[in-house]
Write a structure and sequence with these properties.
The protein is of the alpha/beta class. The chain folds into two domains: 263 residues, 3-Layer(aba) Sandwich (Rossmann fold); 112 residues, no CATH class. Helix content is 38%, strand content 15%. The strands form four sheets. The chain has an eight-stranded mixed sheet with strand order 3-2-1-4-5-8-13-12, with helices on both faces. Strands 6-7 form a two-stranded antiparallel ribbon. Strand 4, helix 4 and strand 5 form a beta-alpha-beta unit. Bound molecules: 2-acetamido-2-deoxy-beta-D-glucopyranose (NAG). 2-acetamido-2-deoxy-beta-D-glucopyranose (NAG) binds next to loops. 2-acetamido-2-deoxy-beta-D-glucopyranose binds next to loops. This is NAD-P-binding protein. Pfam families: Epimerase.
C-alpha cells in the first residue's frame, strides 16, 4: 500500500505557505499528503496577518493543522515534529526563515531522518544583466536581508545527513499574495488607470530582468523537489544537482553565529531556480500590468529620471502622496466600499530601486521534469488575481 507522506510547512504564512497548503490539500479534489501541519509565529484565529478568503477553509479540513509557535526555542521546534496520535512521522518539510530558525529546524529534521527538507529561497539577490543565469552564477545577495538568507543556505548545507534541497524562486505573484514587489506594482498600476495618467518608471527600459513566478508554480515546484529528494536521497541529489554556495559574508560573523561554516569550507547543496517562461522585465511587467487597467507604462526623460534617482530618499514621499491618496479614494468610492485590504499603493525605496532578478529555469525542467502551470504572466492571469481580491472585498470595484 502506498502511504502518502505527512508534511510540515514552517513559516511563510505571509508569503508562499498558503499557496503551498492549498496545493497539498486542495479545497476540491484529492490531497497529496495524509496530514499537513503549518507552523508559524502568527495567530490565525483571530488572524494577525492577511490570510485571504481561501486559506481558512483549508485550515478547516480534518487532516490540516495549524500551530502557532515560537521557533527560536529548540524544545518547541522538536515538538512540532511529533506526529499526530497514531500517525506516521512527518517526512517532508518546507521552511522559510533566516539562520537560527533554519538551523534548529534543519538539525531536528536531520535527527528525525526526514526524507525531504525543501528550503524556499526568496530572490534577495542582484543578478548580473549578462551571463547564463544558471544556478552556477555567484549572484550577489541583496543587502543585509540577502546576506543572511544566503548564509542560511550555507548553514543548512553544513548539516550532515540533512536531505536538503533549495528552490530559489523569482518574484512571486498570484491569488491572495499581497507580499512582494509584483503585487505592489499591480496595485500602483490600477491607481494610474484610475487617475488616467501614464505610469512612469524611474529606470530606463534597458534589460532590467525581473523574472517572475506564479504562486501555483511555487507550490508545484516545491512539491516536485520534495518528491524528487524523497526518491533519490542526499548523495545522489548532490551528485546530480549540487551547486557551490559561495561565501558572501563578513568573516568576523563566524564566531558570533552558531552553525555558520567558515569562509574556506566548501558547501555544496542541490539548488534549483524556479521562474516562469515569461522572461519578465521591468518593461514587460509595467506594460502588462498598466494595460489591464487602461493606463500606459512610460519612461521619464534621462535628465528627470537621473535627478529623481539622485534624490530618491527625498522624493519617495512626493511620489507616494499621489498614489496613496488615489488608492484611498478608490477604496472609498468602491461599490461596496473596501474597508480592509492588505494591498497598499505605497512604494518604499526598495520598490522604487532598480532590481535585477535573472534566473534560468532550465535546470528544474531538465532534472525534475517540472512543467510550469502558469508559464506566462498574461493579462488573463492577472485579471484572475484581481477578481479574487474583488470577490473577497479587498480590491475596489468602480463603475466608470
Ligand atoms: C520567543 O522565545 C525567545 C526565547 O525564549 C524570546 O526571547 C522571545 O521573546 C519569544 N518571542 C515571542 C514572540 O514570544
Amino acid at each position: 500500500m502506498s502511504q502518502k507522506p505527512n508534511a510540515i510547512i514552517f513559516g511563510g504564512l505571509n508569503t508562499c505557505s498558503r499557496a503551498l497548503a492549498g496545493f497539498l490539500v486542495p479545497l476540491e479534489g484529492e490531497a497529496l499528503v495524509s496530514n499537513l501541519r503549518i507552523v508559524d509565529k502568527y495567530s490565525v484565529v483571530p488572524p494577525t496577518t492577511y490570510l485571504g478568503s481561501e486559506f481558512p477553509q483549508i485550515l478547516g479540513k480534518p487532516n490540516v493543522e495549524y500551530q502557532q509557535a515560537n521557533l527560536t526555542v529548540p524544545a518547541i521546534v522538536s515538538s512540532t515534529f511529533d506526529p499526530p496520535p497514531e500517525q506516521e512521522p512527518y517526512s517532508i518539510v518546507q521552511i522559510k526563515h533566516t539562520c537560527n530558525i533554519a538551523r534548529l529546524i534543519g538539525e531536528e529534521a536531520a535527527r528525525r531522518n526526514v526524507k525531504a527538507y525543501v528550503r524556499l529561497q526568496q530572490p534577495w539577490y542582484e543578478s548580473s544583466d549578462k551571463g547564463s543565469h544558471s544556478e552556477q552564477e555567484d549572484v550577489k545577495p541583496y543587502g543585509v536581508i540577502g546576506t543572511w538568507w544566503h548564509e542560511s543556505l550555507r548553514i543548512l548545507g553544513a548539516i550532515e545527513e540533512l536531505n536538503l534541497v533549495i528552490v530559489r524562486i523569482g518574484l512571486i505573484y498570484g491569488p491572495y499574495i499581497d507580499f512582494g514587489l509584483m503585487s505592489n506594482v499591480l496595485t500602483v498600476a490600477a491607481v494610474y488607470g484610475y487617475m488616467k495618467k501614464p505610469m512612469k518608471s524611474l529606470w530606463g527600459p534597458g534589460h532590467n530582468a525581473m523574472n517572475t513566478i506564479h504562486s501555483d508554480d511555487v507550490a508545484g515546484g516545491l512539491w516536485s523537489a520534495a518528491e524528487w529528494m524523497s526518491r533519490v536521497g542526499r548523495s545522489e541529489a548532490i551528485g546530480v544537482a549540487g551547486e557551490v554556495i559561495h561565501w558572501r559574508n563578513d568573516k568576523s560573523k563566524v564566531a558570533e553565529v552558531a552553525g555558520m561554516p567558515p569562509p574556506d569550507k566548501t558547501i555544496v547543496v542541490p539548488l534549483f531556480n524556479l521562474t516562469d517562461d515569461n522572461g519578465t522585465t521591468l518593461d514587460k511587467a509595467g506594460k502588462t500590468m498598466t494595460r489591464i487597467f487602461g493606463a500606459t507604462f512610460e519612461y521619464h526623460n534621462f535628465v528627470t529620471s537621473a535627478m529623481i534617482r539622485f534624490r530618491l530618499e527625498d522624493v519617495v514621499e512626493d511620489i507616494n502622496e499621489s498614489h496613496v491618496g488615489a488608492w484611498a479614494e478608490m477604496l472609498t468610492k468602491s461599490d461596496p466600499p473596501v474597508t480592509k485590504t492588505p494591498l497598499s499603493a505605497y512604494m518604499d525605496t526598495f520598490s522604487l530601486s532598480k532590481h535585477t532578478v535573472a534566473f534560468s529555469n532550465n535546470k528544474i525542467q531538465r532534472i525534475l521534469g517540472y512543467q510550469l502551470k502558469r508559464p506566462n504572466m498574461t493579462s488573463d492571469v492577472l485579471y484572475e488575481i484581481v477578481d479574487k481580491w474583488k470577490t473577497e472585498g479587498s480590491w475596489p470595484s468602480i463603475k466608470s
